[in-house]
Amino acid sequence: MPDTLRAPAGAVDPVTVASDAAQGAGKRAYVQQMFSDIAPRYDLLNHVLSLNVDRGWRRRALRALRWSAHPGGTFLDLCAGTLDVGALLVRQPGFTGHVVGADFAVPMLRHGHGKASRSILSPVGADAVCLPFADRSLAGAIVAFGIRNVADLDAGLREVHRVLRPGGRFVILEFSTPPSALVRTAYHAYFHHVLPRIGRLVSGHASAYTYLPLSVAQFPTEQALADRLRTAGFASVTWERLTLGIAALHIGTA
């Protein structure tokens, strides 16, 4: 190999770093830095790479939250990123409450500025495993495409359970692996080959969209996540697949 094509001595392969993070090694630090780096292009890439299907998934997740039972309550948008879900919730007809968007990648929250007034949607820099809220203080919680990035999943689930009022719903929207072999083959081809190339080109980040499919592959199956929700204290846990199993929706009650 010509010298000009060799990586510098001691250089760290970004794909290796992403793979290690997806499996848990240095995950917290990697995720925090990676999302801070891609924040300016995050919304655009989300909608383009999902062909806008993600918008419908988010609306379905909000319906599952059943916020209308407590329209004036305070709700948590966990791993809120650029506050898309929180902004969507506060725009719902009849919603008169407040949403707190919590994320430890603060630049992501900054790029959500202006999506809604801070009087109804408040960004808070916070880690999912150590939330700055009192016990039993929130009417409900939702997380969209963020729970697999939490370094300690079980600690994060327990923390959400701690801050929810009895009867409060926790809704998880997350990528999953399609059960159909045919769909799974096409999905993997896109997810592991097309998506990382487009993501790298648009975001300018060497490994962010390589980490994404790897982190999904390492995430618990739908049933395993449901079991872990129950272990964390949630009752009436249900789940369903969305769009041929590309994503899944989990619901638990505190």
Summary tags:
254 residues; alpha/beta; Rossmann fold; 7-stranded mixed β-sheet; 10 helices; 43% helix; 20% strand; disordered N terminus
What does it look like?
This protein has 254 residues and is α/β, with parallel strands linked by helices. It has one domain: Vaccinia Virus protein VP39 (Rossmann fold). It is built from ten helices and seven strands. Strands 3-2-1-4-5-7-6 form a seven-stranded mixed beta sheet, with helices on both faces. The protein starts with 13 loop residues before the first helix and ends with a strand.
TL;DR of this structure?
The chain has 254 residues and is of the alpha/beta class.
- Highest CATH level, the class: Alpha Beta
Q: Which sequence of strands runs across the widest sheet? A: 3-2-1-4-5-7-6
| CATH topology group | Rossmann fold
**Poorly predicted sequence stretches spanning 5 or more consecutive residues:** 1-11
User: Which radius of gyration do the C-alpha atoms yield?
Assistant: 18 Å
- Provide the structure class: alpha/beta
Shape: globular
Number of domains: 1
Relevant CATH superfamily = Vaccinia Virus protein VP39
- The assigned CATH architecture is 3-Layer(aba) Sandwich
Strand proportion? 15-25%
Helix content: 40-55%
Q: What number is the mean pLDDT?
A: 90
Major sheet: size, sense and barrel closure? 7 strands, mixed
Following the backbone from N to C, one meets helices and strands in this order, namely: HHHHEHEHEEHEHHHEE
Number of DSSP-assigned strands: 7
